[in-house]
Amino acid sequence: MLQNPAIAGWARRLAGVACVIALGGVSAPVGLAAASAAPSLPGGCEAKPEWIESATLPAAATDPLRSCFADPGQAEATLSILNDRPYAQLITVRGTALDLAESSFGSALAETAAGLLAQASAGHGVSAFLLGPGDEAKLAVDRPPPGAGREIHIDPAPDNSFAVGAQAWALLSAAGKRLPASTTGCILTAVYGTLSGPPHPAHALERIKACVDAAGLSAHAQRLLRRLAVRPLSDALFEKVIKREGSEPYPARLALWIPPSISGPIDSAISLGPANFNVPGEEKSVEHLTATGGSPPYRFYVVPEPGQAGVPYWFQLAADGTLILEPPAEFAPFDFFIEVVDSNGERSYVPYR
User: What's the angle, vertex CA 321, arms to CA 320 and CA 322, rounded to 5?
Assistant: First the structure.
């Protein structure tokens, strides 16, 4: 694959990353004076919802991830998170799956990256998203079904993965729309791969280079992209980012504890409508579930959760009843239950076929 001096030079830079990483944990701290002027969190921050028992949300001006609740609903809460640094941050989510149907991101690239990282994380238990410099995310946190508690941690990725994510963002930003969607997905899959085992940044960056090589770009586009990539995929930038992250005075940890709620009795008077949908292959559709009977407001859950026991990953139901279907061209038949919970905790199960 390394067929000319330009690519060979790129490979040498990637190989040098391994040396940088050995020094990353003991590098002398680098001050944050060069950081760009910090944007402010948007107005409208509200109190923690009553169904979340405790929340640790960094909000000081020096915090790399500033956050607050923007909408404390009964079925879901919206958590506003701001990247307060002049480089992209790769952020992990543990304890819950990202509800992309109800979340939003401050840039088109962040939104695209979140969707592709969600595909890469399917079945792995750890979600991730990228926030560019100054980007804001509004993450929907679904209230768990009755009887279930949840401990959620939203943290910057470990140093090696963090720096690979920052470099991938820099490359994708520089490339703009020059890369096919499949190449962008390949690059972000390589980024996610650093989270699933011991992160080897040189290997991850080689995989990113392989993604670009396989993109089928014209010779002119390849030359242009290599020139764009000189800065993003250099060990100098890698070292700069990892030193900055290692010098943060306080870790940017976000944590939520949602205690188990009482599971009420089955109420046959609660009914769901509509209960059946046509699911056309390769077409995205959005439905909004409603319910009658019982005491509103209602919450809606898939039993079992998507990705388990045959429920497909592309069937996404938010607790407020927003249902997003985005199936592949062909898929196997499936059936399951939708649980409706009213404001008193009383429940009803409706079969979906």
Answer: 100
Strand ranges for the chain from DSSP E: 54-56, 65-72, 76-83, 89-94, 104-105, 126-131, 136-142, 150-156, 254-258, 271-273, 285-288, 290-292, 299-303, 315-317, 322-325, 336-341, 347-352
Q: What's the pLDDT tens digit per position in 44-67?
A: 688 899 999 999 998 777 788 889
Give the angle 323-326-330 at the CA atoms, nearest 5°.
130
Secondary structure letter of residue 216 according to DSSP: -
Domains, the chain, with CATH or none: 5-258 (no CATH), 271-352 (2.60.40)
Q: How many residues would you count in the chain?
A: 353
Q: Which two tokens stand for residue 282?
A: 């390769």
Q: Give CA–CA dist 200/21, Å, rounded.
A: 9
Encode pLDDT of 219-251 as tens digits: 777 777 666 655 555 556 656 666 655 556 556
Query: Of 212, 220, 211, 190, whose CA–CA distance to 202 is shortest?
Result: 190
Helices (H), the chain: 5-24, 108-121, 159-175, 181-193, 201-213, 219-229, 235-246
In the three-class reduction of DSSP (H, G, I as helix; E, B as strand; rest coil), residue 117 is classed as helix
Q: What's the token pair of residue 222?
A: 């390849």
How many beta carbons lie within 10 A of that of residue 243, not counting itself? Answer: 18
Report how far residue 160's alpha carbon sits from residue 25's, in angstroms, rounded to the nearest whole number.
Answer: 10
